[in-house]
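subagent[fold] <- orchestrator: predict structure for attached chain, return tokens only, no commentary.
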Amino acid sequence: MSKTQRILRHLMYPHWRVRLAFPKAALKAIEALVAASETMHDGELRFVVEGGLDLPQLLRGLSARQRAVEAFSQLRVWDTEDNSGVLIYVQLADRQVDIIADRGIDKKVGEQTWQCICAGMQKAFRAGQFEAGALEGVEAAGRVLAENFPAKCENQDELPNAPVIL
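subagent[fold] -> orchestrator:
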């Protein structure tokens, strides 16, 4: 796809399409699963959905991965005591899913694990199953975190569980 085609796709991606893919009930289900998942591990999950990027971001050539890193920073997912934040970023206009893990998680969990989870989510999204794909991704990330970072006795919920729509 050319740069011009990408810019047009993003600028013509209306915000209501994000709400169509992720209605309130789906967002509530994702929030509940994040909360339940976090009782099983010491990680902190954030789920973020974005429709299209704005023109300055597109002119800079910002990739979905780079935007995910920006969102990780803006939402302060890195701001956990054990550096245990994980961001699941869904970029609808580019049809991309990225997972960004804080350095405490990155030491134990390889990028290939996250890419596998992203691929499963993207497959569900291509089939129009946004809620199911999102729940599958959150559940899979939670299992990875539970295996590598089981919950301690005092498991604080350091970040909000509600999904974010940018």
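orchestrator: received. Logging for downstream: Strands lie at 44-50, 85-91, 96-101, 164-165. The CA atoms of residues 55 and 65 lie 17 Å apart.
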